[in-house]
Amino acid sequence: MQQPNGELLGFQITGHSGQDESGSDILCAAVSSAAYLTANAITDVVQVDAQVSVSEGEMSLQTEEKSVFLCRSLLQGLKLHLLGLEEQYPENITVSYTEV
């Protein structure tokens, strides 16, 4: 999720990679781990009040516009990580942007 000026406000991850069977899918584990690290750092370390939702095959986090500066580095790091995984596994992961 990003603003028209490109500032990231959060992320939404949906689905399974299909790279391997459940429990052995290293791509799914890499994405999940990076998402949880980012969410925990934003909510528990930086202590930003963010909307976080987790369910089977889905995770999302959205911060308020006033928190952009505090979360910028963490969300950009997640973005770079996911883009790297997309480059390695183009058939299993797609990174896209939703303007909010």
Q: What is the overall number of helices?
A: 2
In terms of per-residue confidence, which ranges show pLDDT below 50 for 5 or more consecutive residues? none
- Proportion in helices: 40-55%
Which structural category do the helix and sheet elements fall into? alpha+beta
Radius of gyration: 13 Å
Spatial shape: globular
Order of helices and strands: EHEEH
End-to-end C-alpha gap: 6 Å
Largest sheet entry: 3 strands, antiparallel
What's the total count of β strands?
A: 3
User: Mean of the pLDDT scores?
Assistant: 89
Q: Work out the strand percent.
A: 15-25%
Strand order of the largest sheet: 1-3-2
Structure in words:
- The chain is an alpha+beta fold and 100 residues long.
- 41% of the residues lie in helices and 15% in strands.
- The chain has two helices and three strands, in the order βαββα.
- A three-stranded antiparallel sheet has the order 1-3-2, with no helix packed on it.
- Strand 2 (51-55) and strand 3 form a beta hairpin.
- Helix 1 (26-45) packs antiparallel against helix 2.
- The longest helix is centred in the C-terminal third of the chain and has 21 residues, at 68-88.
- The protein is globular.
- It starts with 9 loop residues before the first strand and ends in a 12-residue tail after the last helix.
- The model has no long low-confidence stretch (mean pLDDT 89).
